[in-house]
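To whoever is on call:

I kicked off a structure prediction for a single chain this morning and the downstream step that reads the tokens threw a length-mismatch warning. I double-checked the sequence; it's 447 residues and nothing unusual in it as far as I can see. Pasting both halves so you can look.
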Amino acid sequence: MKSALPIWLVVMSPLAASPQLDFALGILAEQRGDGKAAAEAIEKARAADPAAYPLVTRVAEQHRANGDIEGASTLYREFAAGQPQRLDAQFAYADFLREASPDDDFAGKMARETLEKALARFPGQLSIQRRLFRIYESLDQRDRSTAIFESIASSQPGPSEVLAAVDMARTLFPKDDETARAKVDELLKGACLREPEDPVLARAASEHFRTTGRLPEAIEMLAKHVEAVPSSLALRTRLGILQLAAERDKEGEQTLLDVVAIDNNQGLAHQSLAKLYRKQDRAAEAREHGAQALKVKGGDVAQFTELADEFLNADLPRDARLLLEKAMFYHPSDAEVAVKLAVASRRDPESREKSSRLFREAESLSGEKGPATDPVFLTEFAECLLESKQTKAAEDRLRTAIRTYPPDKKKETATALRRLAAIWQGEKRNEEGAKALLQRADGLDPR
């Protein structure tokens, strides 16, 4: 039996040559840093398969990178001429002309002629019309770009055509042109009636009316879409926000509540509800939705800690703790968050037993002059230390807290003074010092 040929002989055999193999060899040479061999192999592949778009573009772009604009242009031109029924071939040539020579009138003319021929073969093709519109505008041929707009707007265009026409109208007509605006209104309203389920169209239509000062129409466009697609939560949220902006508070509130009832992780809806409830002085509801918005969307440290303080001041330590645990997810190395979390965890009965570790971690993150010098943190930490019989460490923190409380925190300072005095009295030591502390506390906060 004859032995099989070694694989390397098969690969090197002329009979085995193919554009795919040459391309692969070119990529391999490219990876090895041999640019010359790579270019030769890929050019060989292109010559064997001149209709292969990836090969043409790779070789042409290599010419352009080497400064050979004429060589690149020739490749694209021949590719387009040899493939008249392929739009990618026509676009490759036209786009190259516009990109490589943006200020060259002759290149612009060649690009225009290429695309006009393509449009004659593919009438109504939006991708061609868009390119021609830009070329006509760059060549100051406003009559032709206007004709493109009219050709799209005169029929009953689909969503893509409508959006293209609206974009063209912004270029063609001044903002105060009432006739043009009415035409755009008609296009958008008609398209939304025909395709109410299209979210891009609905958002574009709503934004058109909103930015032209017509909130009722902006709301109407989104309402039709939401009715057609109830699961479109992003735009339902947008609808609620616009209803609130139009001072239709009850409608907006209900729209947003419906959103979070469907998906409680819709952060923008929670954020908008929190803003509404703060405006209406509904603090509890504002806290609830504000916390959920932060949990979903994240936020800066101040947003988390300020809201956590609201929960603590309302005697809701569990809510504060849950919020701050999420804050640590977003800001794992922030000492201020760690300090607040330790305090909230100690005040929450569910987590009190595990809070000692959090105080140590917060002190470590904070350093000597960081947020762990906060007197509230220090007094709470002192209680943790007392529970574990670390009296000296607890005393040190109470002393620091007493020195640190600002002058307006008389009641809090008095509480820390009494706590320190109670330690001394309980251990029957420094009785005179304890009396002095109690006298000072009574002076700040008489009982």
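Update from on-call: the warning came from a stale cache, not from the record. Cleared it. Sanity check on the structure: The chain has a mean pLDDT of 90.
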